[in-house]
């Protein structure tokens, strides 16, 4: 199946003579313009069409670039396997406005412009390899001009980015056929769906996943809710091609089945688009671990670039509360109990040490925020969402709930069994902290929609920051006095501990604010 090729449009402005001549072999790998101006991020100013949608060894396919309302000047054309990074096959051209290039040592494997003159159309003939394993090849333009495209991250190119989940739909006037393609990284399956709402249930689905023999197979299904969808006959589907390359699964096909979101039939012209992915076991799909849903209903006969749904405010509040609880109040409460018992030594309020009152107050806020966040998430989702995140969250919730209850029934400070409480209380706190951090990482993956995954990187920086401060505190308190290490003879030990606490707090706040901003803008 011909799913497409990797295309780029290059603006005339700021090109030097080499780029005007189209000798752009330096862009063979990443297909990024080498002139001063960056790659175009908007939909391509031309559409890409082919004269057929399937091929075998040695077949020739006519590929056309047709300008929309505005002529294009520069371009580069390759055919690549889905998920691949090298060109496949070879081209021939007849127009003087196009020339052949050698990329990755493969002659005639790319086509580019010969000048910066405005162009309304370009035609080339692509010839498939005569041997080897032939998988789907990728064409990712035409988005917004000839086809509906929905991707995550937005505007990602599955021919370039291995982390791109991509869905496209293209129709022809006067024809009921819909050409669909889907691709994305997964160890089990990817699937696309058409729905009347933004929740699972009553959805028309096509699944591209591994069967019991490990081969990629296309299935038609109907979702009835939070369980394995009912598999339907494939129906009026043709030109099916499926492949897997470097764990990137791809399926493309033409369907004349009416899209139905009700068992009894009936169809609409507007649907929410869904992309999901998850594991499979012996040919049976498991609960999806990732879901991307369009923010509005889409007419698949009207070419456009579709954006994904934003996270609901309640889910953002859930994430924010968990970050505040386990990046700030919980962290401060734990470090005070571990290292700062000597601060304000001898000072008591209500018959208790100051460090103890601070520890109890902060940990009470932490448990309260965790409980509220837990309730918000379950009230919004209305059930079990699947994946590792809710499992980790529930374990954190249970352990955090029983931690203060156990502390209320502890024995006295001088009781001979007191060490059992001290150790169990400390170990449970460490377990909660580790699991909470893991839950935050898995939760941030839902909000992290950029290709560089900066939210996860910031969280990684936070973990490194906390670990560094804990190691420093342990070194200062168990090995040497602060004055011996830093020669702060003018500072008492407790003042050094307070300085470290302030430094710890400021660093945590900086990471927290960055993550809260990321969640708010996701």
UniProtKB/TrEMBL annotation:
The gene is LOC109896371. It is found in: Membrane. Residues 281-479 form the Cytochrome b561 domain. GO terms for cellular component: membrane. PROSITE patterns: CYTOCHROME_B561, DOMON, REELIN. It comes from the Eukaryota. InterPro entries: Cyt_b561/ferric_Rdtase_TM, DOMON_domain, Ferric-chelate_Red/DefProt, Reeler_dom, Reeler_sf. The chain crosses the membrane at residues 321-341, 353-378, 390-409, 430-447, 467-486, 498-519. Pfam families: DOMON, Reeler. It is a multi-pass membrane protein. The keyword tRNA-binding does not apply. Keywords: Electron transport, Glycoprotein, Iron, Membrane, Transmembrane, Transmembrane helix, Transport. Residues 9-176 form the Reelin domain. The keyword Glycoprotein applies. This is Zgc:163022. Its cofactor is heme b.
């Amino acid at each position: 199946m011909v799913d497409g090729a990797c295309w780029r449009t290059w603006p005339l402005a700021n090109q030097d003579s080499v780029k005007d001549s189209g000798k752009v072999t330096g862009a063979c790998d990443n297909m990024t313009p080498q002139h001063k101006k960056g790659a175009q991020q908007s939909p391509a100013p031309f559409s890409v069409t082919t004269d057929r949608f399937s091929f075998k060894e040695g077949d020739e396919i006519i590929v056309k670039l047709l300008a929309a309302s505005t002529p294009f000047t520069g371009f580069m054309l390759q055919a690549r396997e889905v998920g691949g990074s090298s060109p496949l096959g070879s081209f021939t051209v007849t127009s003087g406005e196009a020339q052949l290039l050698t990329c990755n040592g493969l002659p005639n494997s790319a086509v580019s412009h010969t000048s910066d003159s405005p162009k309304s159309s370009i035609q080339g003939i692509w010839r498939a390899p005569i041997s080897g394993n032939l998988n789907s090849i990728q064409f990712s333009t035409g988005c917004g001009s000839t086809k509906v495209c929905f991707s995550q991250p937005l505007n990602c190119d599955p021919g370039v980015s291995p982390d791109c989940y991509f869905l496209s739909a293209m129709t022809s006037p006067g024809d009921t056929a819909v050409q669909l393609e889907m691709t994305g990284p997964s160890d089990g399956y990817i699937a696309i769906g058409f729905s009347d709402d933004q929740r699972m249930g009553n959805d028309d689905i096509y699944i591209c996943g591994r069967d019991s023999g490990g081969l990629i197979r296309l299935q038609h299904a109907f979702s009835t809710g939070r369980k394995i969808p009912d598999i339907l006959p494939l129906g009026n589907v043709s030109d099916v091609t499926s492949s897997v390359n470097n764990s990137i699964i791809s399926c493309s096909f033409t369907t004349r089945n009416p899209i139905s979101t009700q068992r009894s039939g009936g169809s609409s012209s507007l649907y929410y688009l869904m992309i999901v992915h998850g594991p499979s076991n012996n040919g049976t799909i498991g609960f999806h671990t990732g879901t991307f849903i369009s923010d509005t209903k889409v007419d698949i006969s009207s070419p456009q670039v579709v954006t994904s749904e934003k996270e609901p405010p309640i889910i953002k509040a859930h994430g924010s509360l968990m970050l505040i609880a386990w990046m700030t109040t919980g962290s401060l409460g734990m470090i005070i109990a571990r290292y700062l018992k000597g601060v304000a030594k001898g000072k008591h309020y209500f018959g208790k040490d100051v460090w103890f009152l601070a520890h109890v107050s902060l940990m009470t806020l932490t448990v309260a925020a965790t409980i509220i966040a837990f309730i918000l998430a379950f009230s919004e989702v209305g059930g079990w969402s699947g994946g590792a995140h809710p499992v980790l969250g529930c374990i954190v919730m249970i352990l955090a709930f029983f931690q203060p209850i156990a502390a209320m029934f502890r024995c006295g400070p001088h009781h001979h069994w007191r060490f059992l409480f001290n150790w169990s209380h400390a170990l449970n706190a460490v377990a909660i902290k580790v699991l909470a951090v893991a839950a935050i990482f898995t939760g941030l993956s839902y909000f992290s929609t950029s290709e560089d995954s900066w939210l996860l990187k910031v969280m990684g920086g936070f973990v490194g920051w906390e670990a560094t401060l804990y190691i420093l505190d342990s070194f200062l308190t168990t090995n040497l006095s602060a004055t011996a290490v830093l020669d702060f003879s003018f500072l008492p030990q407790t003042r050094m501990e307070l300085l470290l606490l302030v430094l710890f707090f400021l660093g945590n706040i900086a990471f927290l604010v960055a993550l809260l901003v990321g969640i708010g803008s996701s």
